[in-house]
Write a structure and sequence with these properties.
alpha/beta; Metallo-beta-lactamase, Chain A; Rossmann fold; 2 domains; seven-stranded mixed sheet; 14 helices; 22 strands; 21% strand; binds zinc ion
Length: 457
């Protein structure tokens, strides 16, 4: 086996690794870079491998930083199968089309603003996304599938987002595990990460490899207190959240608070056509739910719907939220405040000290979300300078990524035969301490992968 690291090496976005086995080439994920616009755009356009030379893709989960360049792969000539769980396939259907729509609209916007200049081409079109969908081959957890001459893959629940998988790939001689993104025990809706069998090599994410999370069970309490404080000030609560996973978790937690009468009676809006579509995908995949969420269903309750909660698709209705008097809560993507409707809500609300911005996930370097999280008081939204006077809070308890201790525990079942770990999907400040911790605890070498590095295993 030969491994080449391309994306999410030394950073958290753009996941893409190539595995060569027996004359065939496989991509492990095909994700999009996120971050500073111009830089991300350039990095996304440059594809590290010739697309027609790729025989198949193994997709760990639907998040755009893992799946977002699949339509570009198709556009460039890839025609092979894409292996993913059926929940991941359904989520990709919603997300890749949405991403293509955003790319097309952005290119349109640039072309209208700068007529006569070089025409901006979207990275890919809706048609490219549509042509990608038939390539998907749904796989089931713990059912081995032959995906090449001698290569067999088996998926395990990664407990990170609906349908997320860690995979074990074996050619009969070498066993390689790819973690994808590893979740945490006790997250709302989805099941806990599953144990993988012993393997020879492991490619593991390291997003939070250098830190420890607060306990998950504090999430409901923190959400409650942030809401009460904001509403007490007569302010609005703006919650930038990923449309996939985080939005549904927040809705379920709000449902808990509602059932226990701990929720002040204010309107709650989920403002995103994508989040609405994705919530439908969640409803269609109860086989991925944990026991608690499944029980909700069996008791005849909709985990993702309740009184005072309104889902908004329409852009006009979204704009009307600005005219509502009195406090309300709006949950809207993107989670890192880079694109999407949340930017409009931030523009209207970030200058008012009564309001709160509640960040709910990882904020990559150079994103508006990271700037807010770091306490910057002057930011730009749609290019307009804004003073941040709203309160900024973080709900890290909902993180979909295991922290360093949880990653070390998760990898333990693999260690009896493990020869080496490759750390990806982490900024060096996270990956390096994790590499040291792996060596200290298990005596196993852990390498922090760099872009372009090649390993024979
Ligand atoms: Zn993810």
């Amino acid at each position: 086996m030969k491994l080449t690291f391309a994306g999410a090496a030394g950073t958290v976005t753009g996941s893409m690794h190539q595995l060569e086995v027996d004359g065939k080439r496989y991509l492990l994920d095909c994700g999009m870079f996120q971050g500073r616009r111009k830089e991300a755009e350039q990095r996304n356009r440059w594809f590290p491998f010739p697309a027609p030379s790729i025989d198949a893709v193994v997709l760990s989960h639907a998040h755009i930083d893992h799946s977002g360049r699949l339509p570009l792969l198709t556009k460039n000539g890839f025609r092979g199968p894409i292996y993913a769980t059926s929940a991941t396939v359904d989520l990709c259907n919603a997300m890749l089309l949405d991403t293509a729509h955003i790319l097309e609209s952005d290119a349109d916007f640039v072309n209208r603003r700068h007529p006569g200049e070089e025409v901006a081409e979207p990275l890919y079109s809706k048609l490219d996304a549509e042509e990608t969908m038939p390539l998907f081959q749904p796989v089931r957890y713990r059912i081995p599938v032959n995906i090449g001459n001698s290569l067999v893959m088996e998926s395990y629940d990664a407990g990170h987002v609906l349908g997320s998988a860690s995979v074990v790939l074996t050619d009969g001689k070498t066993r390689l595990a790819y973690s994808g993104d590893v979740g945490r025990p006790g997250l709302p809706i989805i099941r806990d990460p599953e144990a993988l069998p012993p393997v020879d090599y492991l490619i593991m994410e390291s997003t939070y490899g250098g830190r420890k999370h607060p306990q998950e069970n504090e999430a409901v309490g923190k959400l409650e207190s942030v809401m009460k404080d904001t509403i007490g000030r007569g302010g609005r609560l703006i919650v930038p959240a990923f449309a996939v996973g985080r939005t549904q978790q927040l809705v379920l937690l709000l449902h808990h608070l509602m059932n226990e009468n701990r929720l002040p009676s204010v309107p709650i809006f989920v403002d995103s056509p994508l989040a609405v579509n994705v919530t439908e995908v969640f409803r269609a995949h109860p086989e991925c739910f944990d026991t608690e969420t499944y029980t909700y269903l069996q008791n005849g309750e909709d985990p993702f719907g309740f009184k005072r909660l309104t889902y908004i698709r329409d852009a006009r209705e979204s704009k009307q939220l600005n005219d509502i008097q009195g406090p309300f809560i709006v949950i809207s993507p993107s989670g890192m405040c880079e694109t999407g409707r949340v930017l409009h809500h931030l523009r209207h609300n970030v200058g008012n000290p009564k309001n709160t911005v509640l960040l709910t996930g990882y904020q990559a370097e150079n994103t508006l979300g990271r700037k807010l999280k770091d306490g910057m008081k002057n930011v730009r939204i749609f290019g307009i300078p804004m003073e941040v006077r709203a309160v900024v809070e973080s709900l890290d308890e909902l993180s979909g990524h295991a922290d360093s201790g949880e990653l070390l525990d998760w990898m333990r079942p693999m260690t009896p035969t493990l020869k080496r770990v490759f750390l990806v999907h982490g900024e060096p400040v996270s990956s390096r301490p994790l590499a040291e911790a792996i060596h200290a605890r298990y005596g196993i070498e852990a390498v922090v992968a760099e872009p372009g590095q090649v390993y024979e295993i």
